[in-house]
Amino acid sequence: MIATLTSLPRRMWRAIVGRLRPARRSKYPRRIPGLTTLAARLRLGFGAQPLSVVSGSDRGPSIHRYYLDLFMREFAADIHGRCLEFQNDQYTTRFGESRVSHLDILHKEGSGTSKQATIVADLLAPNDLPSASYDAIICTHTLHIVEDPPRFMNELRRLLTPGGVLLLGVPHVAGIQPWWHELWRFTPEGLAWLGARSFGAGNVTLRSYGNTLTAAGAMRGLIAAEFSSRELGLHDDRFAVEVCLRAVKA
Ligand SMILES: C[S@@+](CC[C@H](N)C(=O)[O-])C[C@H]1O[C@@H](n2cnc3c(N)ncnc32)[C@H](O)[C@@H]1O
Questions:
Q1: Are the C-beta atoms of residues 209 and 244 closer than 8 Å to each other?
Q2: Which of 30, 37, 106, 169 is surrounded by the most beta carbons within 10 Å?
């Protein structure tokens, strides 16, 4: 019997062991199908307190992250070769897949923790990062916390190779997370202007995502799963939840 078991192919072993192991607990609270969504949708109109103070990210994948995924999916082909991302690899690995040959994770010293950081540097201070090092820079939820956004954009441009691409996203309608010392919000026009200032107007593409319903939802702590794809898919610049910029170094 033992001999029969040990001769099973590895794939079959994995399947058997996987079934015996207890299912991995989700990092999010348990949802009761239908009911959790209904209760959350009702909460859009009642009570001054939100369901979450971190834009729903403690309840499930947030509306901001849903929109960032749309942006990254559209421009996934830009994520290739030598890449740089901030704090962790949440977009480069998922959307760059095998096109990525090298990935650096940058984190500013003293700004919270990053177990994944391979480079610790302040891009607003003199640093020894070589120019023209990266084919792609993925910079999400960072520009709104830096003290000097125009200088930061110039520095991102310096780090790109000619033809290299910056994919950047910032929250527009969102609660403030004070521990990150959030300083700014960028309107779609403001981010396009800032991108054009560093990269040239012909080299930037802007995307803004969201509408009054999903903006209200993000503020109230609702998550992407609590809206239909039709509701999430209506985009009205005036009420953008997430604003994203693709910029190419000419
Ligand atoms: C709020 S975290 C967001 C990171 C992550 N990309 C995300 O989407 O959640 C901001 C990141 O920007 C970095 N950062 C902030 N100011 C910086 C600066 N002046 N130079 C370099 N990195 C900076 C922080 O260290 C941190 O890794």
A1: yes
A2: 169
